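Let us begin with a simple case.
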Amino acid sequence: MYVHHENMKLTMKMLQDFLEISADRAYDLDNNNRVLFYYASKKLADSTPGDAILGKCILDFLPPDGVPKVTELLKSLEKQEIPSGRVTYIREDGSHLEFSAIAKLEKGMYMGCRVLIKNLSQRLSPRLTHGDSSYAEFIQDSSSLNTEKELQVQLKQQELLIRVSVGFTSSETFHDSVNQSLKLLGEFMQVDRVYIFKDYSSEQVFSCEYEWTSGNTKPMLPYTQKVPYNNQHDSYLQLLTLPFVAINNTAILPSTEHQKPKDLGIKAFINVPIFVNGNFWGFMGIDSCVSSRIWTKSETNFLSIFVGILSSEINRESIQRALLKAMEQTKQASKAKSEFLSRMSHEIRTPMNTILGMTTIALKSPDMEKIADCLKKIETASQQLLGIINDILDISKIEAGKFEINQNEFQMESLLESVKNVISPQSFVKNQLLTFNVDFDFTRKIISDETRLMQVMVNLLSNAVKFTPENGSITVDISFKKIDPARAKLLVSIKDTGIGLSDEEASRLFQPFEQADGSITRRFGGTGLGLAICKTIVQMMGGSIGVKSSPGRGSDFYFDVPFQWGNPVLIDQESCKKNHDVKKNQWKGKKILLAEDMEINREILINLLEDTGVSIDSAENGIRALEMFSLNPGMYDIILMDIQMPGMDGLTCCRSIRSMETSYGKNIPIIAMTAHAFKQDVIESLNAGMNAHISKPIDYKELISVLSGYLDCTS
């Protein structure tokens, strides 16, 4: 107990002596800026009694000029914007004071701060003493030195600083420049070790990055990598608030702090903090391993300038590294986009060649079977071209930040049936075994984005078909994992027996404009956009996507997305809006008003609906459509309205019809039928008073489905 008590007394005495030198007052504050501990220097004549300060807010004891500056600093510490900081202010008597503070953190929580206040108007340099023996000379004033000798030292210091500055501009690498500067500094100051530690605050560790040693001095760099904060000498932490920490004789340190310097043979040391752009970056240290040493004021001033050069060069090197990285990323992005444009040109020209070629053959041929075959090939190529255009539009919306997810209620069985209808013909052509394993019954509808979910599944399955050889197999496993009574997570896995991927290829797979390797385009085609779009969709839906694969052993693409449970599925439920085939002349007696300025588009629609028996009146613009409807508003059952037309656009025409006093104008279904396909376009159509929105190019099944919802359900 006696030894422990003596150590405590020594530690407290050292703390007081350090405070006598480094500050006039010291405070320990809680997270409400209340004083928990207070110490005032013995040299202060106006020292306030501790009892009058403890428990009070420190701001209550500051002069008016200091309150706003200190308040801002303390707020920054509390928000953990900075680990430490200092401000200066003027007291009523005209003296300048410096307020330094370092945050106290515990498990990432701000617990308050430690504060040092010193009078900058006074220039004091006392010694640390304990009893009769001097155990640490903090700073020795150089005022007693001979003026001529002092001038010579300063000239040599300036010469070294110039050499160091020039060295950073002439050396090939930043690493070489730093090592050379440490060597010059060590030899000039006649010390045994010079080193630089970097602060990795995110990991709460220091690491020695650079070191120079003289003669037989033991290097410490191999043993000082990622040293935890709590293993560091307490003086390191003081570097956040002090201009330097100097120990002239390590022998007088408490035993708990002396062991580490002793292991490294350190007899005296000085550490100077390195701040880069106002942030604590690390520190530079200098060790004397032969004997103790008194660090003079001239030396500390010189080292501050030296560290200032280091700080500037570290910042410059960091900026250069960031610029080089940005240039490389730009170069890679430019290369990827150039390759993408080359692929895109190929992908667009291939179906266009089919469309133009088959059209020419069909026009020249009198053989109806040959013409029919050409038309089938034209239809396939057109769908391929439409898929490419949709991918380009999707990636454009993603890059513009306008890609959106829309929640709706739907039956999972219907979605899977639609996916099968799209993929089965593709796998049938290659004689592949396509299997869907669903390990539960969806007795309730789900709420998610049906369109985007189907887009992801179709894209992944299309890739599986593409990269799996003939007679291969593709297995789709679908299940769900309960989150809570109202929510669950959909789990989808798509395994194939295809060509597989290496780890390096898989790492690039979900990036825009990327494919596994350049030969993929030549062998299989594709734009390199699909998987990037899938990744964005899944992430925006709150899920994750990935792949497990190895070359020659197939791939397993998997994703999960959360969803909400909807209403129960009614097995016998019939809906007028269900997509179904229309019988011949089913809509005989019904009449459509078609507003479309392009003659070819009017011809296409009239021919598409010819077998339904519906009668169609055409208007070439909004003005003519409004006139025709106004003359006999009860004649029409539905209006198909293009948006972009000369004279009067479709939105204006729709608003005019809705503003009519007759009930026909207010109630007649008006369907937007336009090439404006973005969500904002749909919103504008609905806001103008339209009932639905069909995007061009017209999908026949979608057109029939929408029209059925109105023409079959009219009472």
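The second case is a distinct protein. As before, the sequence precedes its structure tokens.
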Amino acid sequence: MTRKKSHFLRQALPAAAVLLLSVSAALYLWKAARENADRQVHFRFEAQTKEIAFFVQKRLELYGNALYSLKALFTVSDVGPSEWSTFTETESLRERYPGLTALRFIQRVPASERDAFEKATGIGIRSSRDRDEYFPVLFVYPAAGNELMPGFDVASERPLSEALQLARDTGRPAAAEPLPGPAGSRTFVIFAPVYRRGTAPADVSARRESLAGFLDLVLKIDDLLANSYNPSAARDIRFEIFDGEESESTRLYDSRPGAVSAGPLTQTIPMEVAGRVWLLHFSALPEFSDTPETRLPRVYLFGGLALSLLLSGIVLALSTSRSRAVSFAEKMTVDLSREIGERKLADEKLQRLVQDLERRNHEASLMGELGELLQSCSRLEEAYPLIGRFAPLFFPDTRGALYLINGARNLVEGVADWGIPLAGERIFVQDDCWALKRGKPHFVHAGGAEPACKHVVSYPPEGYLCVPMMAQGQGLGVLHLQGASGTAPREELAVALAGESALALANLKLREALHAQSIRDRVTGLYNRHYLQESLDRELLRTARRKESLGLLMIDIDHFKHFNDAYGHEVGDAILAAVGKFLASRFRGDDLPCRYGGEEFVVILPGASLESSAELAGQVREEIKTIKVNTGSKMEGITLSIGVAAYPALATTPEALLRSADQALYRAKDEGRDRVLVGVPVPG
């Protein structure tokens, strides 16, 4: 009996060894696969939450830029009902900015000026109590649905009043405590202070003294956030926003109301919004972790245990034949080695995933840095080289170019490029680019059947990608990338770069358009008085630093009142336009002709002496006589009276220079008009 038992144990020993080894291998693979799956899930969760936060921040920055652009208009020019209506309707703000409930201008009205304000505007101020100063809504867009807003004293509500005071004293936008809206939605208001033109208050007391009013945005949060981030990134994630702290009462937004999270996969990202802190809270739903990667460990465990039992049973059955058992054990060893090899492949896949996530984080960081720099640009010409410098950082193995649509000429023009010279045209028509015609990216693969764009002169063997640049539904241009060393540009990143650039350039174009409106005279097309004063200060400082001279002409249209009275204001405007066109074409590029007011014009002549300025004025007086204006009944000629002054010969300050030229002009008119007289010295 003992001998049989001993023989059985010897036969069972290989089976026991196989069972132990295979169970150990199954447990090892299960543990490794579970750790791998957990890491993948965490990396994916972190990447998707950062992506959502990034695009939410960009959406908020876009709305802030709109507020700054309109603020610039108030800063440099007077805005009345017609200017307000023209700007808001032309820009189609409600269509471009989802969630915009109202855009308002709120005027500061001291109590002593209340009656005058109500009489001048026809708007009665509605306030909860008498105060030292009121902040009634003067303009509102859109008018439909906001009929009761004009006259409402915004400061009569405590949360709004606190935000008004913060914006006024800091000089920066300030958001009020979010307000409850219909059907559980939340609304929040951002105020931007507007100070009187020509002031630059540097401290609290100066800001309070110079305050003219506020611009504000009233935004519905649910609509604002709709489509602001990639839906696929938030498919299995609950995304909530809280104001200041995480509680039911402070929740502003919930992408999945009532959804249950999957446990520890949560993340909170703080975000500063106009002086308030929003908490972006993310929690994974159960479906987020239910992926093939997370199911794989269980497959390894149960499959490994079943295989272990099967193998040990087979080995036990075969143990009577030593050679067969050994052969089978060797085969099992090979199988285990293969499984371990597969595990190494899984580790390599994880490593590639980690590298991909690190790359994405780096790209998101670069995109944020580029966006911040583009927002700081004051002109489009500053933005173009920035995009050209950042593009190679996103696509180190490519060369490319940025093309913008010139609306006036219906052409697409290159404004920036990078890498070796491109095989393509610098200027082409829109129909030459398939991406612009189709409104979506156009990727031409090497040897593919895709039609090539006509602006690509010679076909690059490695292929190329054109991405249309769209902002608020309008095409701005195209981002063109050509691969290098056989590496095709990554379309997803190219689309993101094109979108970020397009939004920034669209805002800059809007700002430049507003600035141009604020410094140009509508009738003559020349610079206005406000721009003249700024330019004269700047040019005098530059002239003094270079120890040069500067001439100034003050020009008046003779008998202009007669033209207006006899033929009407339309003829008067035609005369002003004709003189403006003549002055714009007559002077050098450095000279600065401006409309000073009424029928008066001023021309700044950098580098001109008193003598050369007087000689030039005489030429202008003679040349203007060749211009005839159709009054409806006959062609009338134009004559000019001109006063001449110069720095430093007659004056050393802007005020004195203008006064010297003005005195000379009035002497010219008193002596019979149609003449040029030189001013006399005027002390500064």
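The chain is about 50% helix and 20% strand. The first helix runs from residue 2 to 76.
Keep these points in mind for the review questions at the end of the chapter.
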